[in-house]
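Incident log, support desk, overnight shift.

02:14 A customer reports that sequence design results differ from what the structure should imply. Their input is reproduced verbatim below. On-call engineer (initials T.W.) acknowledged and began investigating.
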């Protein structure tokens, strides 16, 4: 019994230590964004959440649709599906506009979607696929990107959106500047997503 109790205390301590690694940078207007340092990288990773109007399937369809990117992803100026390895998955091209004199960034990634039968949580995993199409002249290709989007059932009329991501932006960018802006960038995207879904309910 003592061994079981010790193992439980040790596991709880480990979970608390892991949780403490994240810094809550944004907690306002129903939006939360955390960041933390990524081992081996100068750039932080981020996670966040927001409650949105609509059923999970509807919210998820907006998130994974390349066509809606410009309506809610912060500074997204182009996005389209290159191919579909499976009907529910897509290899996507996305480009974001940067403030002068910083060059625009783009990324190519596979969005793999799934749904947990028990929890009904919908999930999209992003896996980088830079070799699918050549680089665009004048645009910096993001060198590494990984992340996920989840949509959880929340209430009869709402869903909870949860994301996690880490990006290596490529080119020359001061890491301190990127890390400082990271939480606000994601806050703006989550806010725009919530507003877009609220409009689609009307």
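02:41 Re-run completed on a clean worker. Output:
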């Amino acid at each position: 019994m003592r061994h079981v109790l010790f193992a439980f205390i040790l596991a709880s301590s480990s979970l608390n230590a892991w949780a403490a690694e994240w810094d809550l940078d944004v907690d306002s207007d129903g939006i939360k964004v955390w960041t933390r340092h990524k081992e081996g990288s100068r750039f932080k990773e981020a996670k966040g959440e927001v409650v949105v109007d609509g059923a999970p399937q509807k919210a998820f369809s907006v998130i994974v649709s390349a066509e809606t990117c410009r309506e809610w992803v912060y500074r997204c100026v182009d996005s389209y599906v290159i191919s579909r390895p499976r009907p529910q998955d897509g290899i996507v091209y996305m480009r974001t506009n940067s403030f002068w004199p910083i060059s625009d960034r783009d990324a190519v990634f596979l969005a793999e979607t799934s749904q947990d039968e028990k929890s009904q949580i919908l999930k999209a995993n992003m896996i980088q696929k830079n070799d699918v199409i050549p680089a665009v002249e004048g645009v910096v290709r993001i060198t590494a990107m990984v992340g996920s989007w989840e949509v959880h059932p929340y209430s009869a009329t709402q869903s909870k959106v949860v994301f996690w991501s880490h990006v290596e932006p490529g080119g020359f960018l001061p890491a301190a500047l990127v890390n400082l802006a990271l939480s606000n960038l994601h806050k703006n995207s989550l806010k725009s997503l919530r507003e877009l879904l609220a409009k689609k309910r009307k």
